[in-house]
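Help needed: design a sequence for this.
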């Protein structure tokens, strides 16, 4: 086949088309405008208000979670399980013994030297007539008297061969006996009544400080009663009475501190 010869005009047109396509290919493509980041600036007051709202939100979440631990109710609307009125953890209450040791009213009995106290917090449970169970602390205070030898030394506890019995720290143990013990309970209503009788101000009968104060006053009152028992006092009033087959003289007496 005979190849057709292109004219100079056609060759010039071909060259123009090639240059145009090259220029289009090499021209830079239009770039998309860069997306600007959203930046919010807050004042100090606005930031503080935002933090407060977040804190309230966290608190509400916690309260909502805690309500799940509330006792369930049966069909009669009564609580299922044990209701805890007050904490039964001894760490939540202060030990009253040192304050009782320092009572000036007991100095004449050489209280620290002749006596000692034991104090415990135990859990007690009871059930009402409606079938609801409650749990609350019971405070026990025990008064002991130390025993001494004729020479004034404390009486040591010995074993069968006469050797001193040692405690966990390797110290000898001494003899004592229980004089008296008492139990105390948390009772806001009774505490408020006692405080009013004593002329003490009452702002919140359920507050921990108030209940602690009234409990210590009851400890003190009980302890002073132990050491200040009423004694029988004779009087001169006499009369005769026939008891059985005998005539006896009857004397009256009264209880006095």
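Sure. Designed sequence:
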């Amino acid at each position: 086949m005979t190849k057709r010869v292109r004219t100079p005009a056609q060759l010039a047109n071909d060259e123009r088309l090639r240059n145009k396509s090259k220029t289009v290919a090499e021209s830079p493509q239009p770039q998309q405008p860069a997306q600007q980041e959203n930046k919010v600036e807050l004042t100090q007051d606005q930031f503080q208000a935002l933090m407060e709202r977040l804190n309230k939100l966290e608190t509400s979440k916690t309260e909502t979670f805690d309500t799940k631990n509330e006792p369930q109710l049966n069909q009669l609307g009564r609580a299922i399980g044990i209701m805890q009125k007050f904490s039964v953890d001894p760490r939540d209450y202060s030990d009253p013994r040192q304050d009782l040791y320092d009572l000036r009213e007991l100095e004449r009995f050489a209280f620290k030297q002749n006596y000692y106290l034991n104090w415990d917090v135990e859990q007690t449970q009871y059930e009402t007539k409606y079938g609801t169970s409650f749990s609350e602390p019971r405070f026990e205070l025990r008064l002991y008297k130390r025993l001494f030898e004729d020479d004034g030394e404390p009486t040591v506890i010995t074993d069968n061969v006469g050797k001193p019995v040692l405690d966990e720290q390797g110290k000898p143990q001494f003899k004592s006996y229980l004089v008296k013990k008492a139990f105390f309970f948390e009772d806001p209503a009774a505490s408020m009544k006692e405080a009013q009788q004593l002329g003490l101000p009452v702002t919140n009968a359920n507050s921990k400080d108030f209940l602690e104060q009234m409990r210590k006053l009851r400890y003190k009152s009980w302890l002073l009663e132990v050491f200040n028992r009423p004694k029988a006092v004779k009087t001169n009033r006499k009369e005769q009475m026939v008891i059985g087959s005998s005539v006896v003289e009857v004397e009256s007496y009264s209880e006095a501190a």
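The first strand starts at residue 82 and ends at 84.
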